[in-house]
Amino acid sequence: MVDIYHQVGVKTYVNNVYKALTTLDSLSNWWTYTTGNTREGGVLSFHFGEHKVEMTIIELVPDRTVRWRCTVDSGEWKDTYLTFKLLETPEQVFVNFSHTGWAAQTELCSHCNTKWAVFLLSLKDYLEKGKGKPFPDDIHINHIDF
Amino acid sequence: MVDIYHQVGVKTYVNNVYKALTTLDSLSNWWTYTTGNTREGGVLSFHFGEHKVEMTIIELVPDRTVRWRCTVDSGEWKDTYLTFKLLETPEQVFVNFSHTGWAAQTELCSHCNTKWAVFLLSLKDYLEKGKGKPFPDDIHINHIDF
User: Fold this and answer.
1) How far from B141 is each of A29, A103, B76, B114, B144, CA to CA, in Å?
2) Would the pTM count as exceeding 0.95?
3) Residues of A with Cβ-Cβ distance to B105 under 8 angstroms
4) B104 contacts in A (CB within 8 Å)?
5) Is residue B83 less than 8 Å (CB to CB) from chain A?
6) Complex confidence, ipTM
7) Cβ of residue B58 closer than 8 Å to a chain A Cβ
């Protein structure tokens, strides 16, 4: 199994970060256009043009933890877990992110690792400056359309 | 052991990427101020203010591979390996980067993973736009001075 771990520090209230991870409008403003049911057990759909990624929300602990399981039918993301653990300090809120359970270290895994940094910095900008860079206005890390 | 893998695609000639990884001036323009001996077996010093990281160049294959071993005395980077593998395609040059051999998944490891994305995008900007964002003008991912 291959796991991805990132950390960013955001200067805001922890509840603002939690909201940015648990409301359709906020998710659409830093990652990509999001639809679905935001309650625990609900299914979220993240839209990337014609491509859609579905996540089932498996854990919500207000101001602490957001955990999704990627419940797509096939592909490398199938049954991987995405977890955001929030840690409030006097200076900032740390977002400890992981995308775990990849079957193997692949090119897509490397690509997604770099891309997660881009989107977590978009989350940070959204919370600190009021504007993120969600898909398709995200920072492109190569010259392929994905 | 924990390993970090990233990938970016750069629109330039492969030799330009190789040079950006093997000359003091270029390394200083996308990562941080660099001194030392750029030949295989040489030791490079990467300066971050008063903090210095030393790498021994263990493999240089022109236009293909650059591999360093972090030969510092202590700390989590001690004896980790940093590898840049270049793959030229008609559209772009893929930089497949890894930082392998971490003893454990730690907070520093998460931090450095996010930070490597930032510096690889700085390398991409340096090569495509003529200007990177080396330390201390790099994108800050938190509100601590490291």
Assistant:
1) 19, 28, 20, 8, 9
2) yes
3) 3, 5
4) none
5) no
6) 0.96
7) no
